[in-house]
Every structure is written in structure tokens, then in C-alpha cells.
Amino acid sequence: MQRQLETFYGMILAGAGFAVWALFALLPVLSGHGIREAWDMTPYWILGVPLLLALHGLAGASTEDGAWRLPLWAIGGHIASMLLIHPTGTNVALLPFAVLYIGVPMYVVLLLATLTGRMIGRRAGST
Q: pLDDT of 87-117, one tens digit each?
């Protein structure tokens, strides 16, 4: 049952990772500009990343095992969105650098959010 719960939250996190990139990459299209990389947009850092952190905290508070896997779901959704939604004329040649310089630190931050949520959830449950 616990593994099913982790998979359920993982799918939500993957969808959130995909949606955060897609939303902020496509947002400039509404104002008549082309698609941009989401991390070039200020709202991505102000709204999107904190949303992912909050979701990881909630998922961490709700699951017992597999904390190290939960960030991989969100990053996987994020990478899938990056591959599908990108500015015209760009290719995926720089994707390994993005994974290394943004994906790895993002994994650590999301893991810390997950573990923080787990600690808060345990503390709230014990009182």
C-alpha cells in the first residue's frame, strides 16, 4: 500500500514538474512573443519552484518510504516538458549540462523539501 501511495504522489509530482515548465515556457506566447525557456522567466523562480517545494513537502509528510525517489518524479516530468516545449532553433545538445548544473542541485533541494515535510508530518502526528 505504501508503494502505491508513493507512486500516486510521484505521478502528481511528475505532472507538476511538467506543468511548471510548460506554463512558464508558454506564458510569453500569450503576449505575442515566442516560446522561451521557463527558467529565463522570473515567475518560474518566484511561483513555480516554490510550488514544487511545497508539493514535495506535502508528499514527504504523507509517505513513509522512498523519499529519495520523489524528486526524481518531478525532475523527470520537468525534463519531459523541456524536451517537448522549447524555443524554436534550440536543440537538446545542452540538455546534459542542464541536468548537471540545474537538475542535480534541484534534486538536492527537492529531497530536502521532502525530508522536511516528513519531519514536520511526524512531529505533527506525535503531538
A: 777 777 777 888 888 889 999 999 999 999 9
CA distance 42 to 48: 9
Per the structure, the count of domains in the chain is: 1
For residue 93, give every residue at least 6 positions away whose Cβ sits within 8 Å of its Cβ, in sequence order, or none: none
Spatial contact of 115 and 67, defined as CB atoms under 8 Å apart: yes
The range of the structural domain enclosing residue 78 comes to: 2-126
Residues shown for the chain = 127
Give the cell for residue 89.
Answer: 532553433
Q: Contact at 8 Å (CB) between 54 and 109? A: no
Element (H, E) at 12: helix 2-30
- Report pLDDT digits (tens) over 44-78: 999 999 999 999 999 988 888 788 899 999 999 99
CA distances from 79 to 2, 15, 33, 51, 84 (A): 26, 11, 23, 17, 9
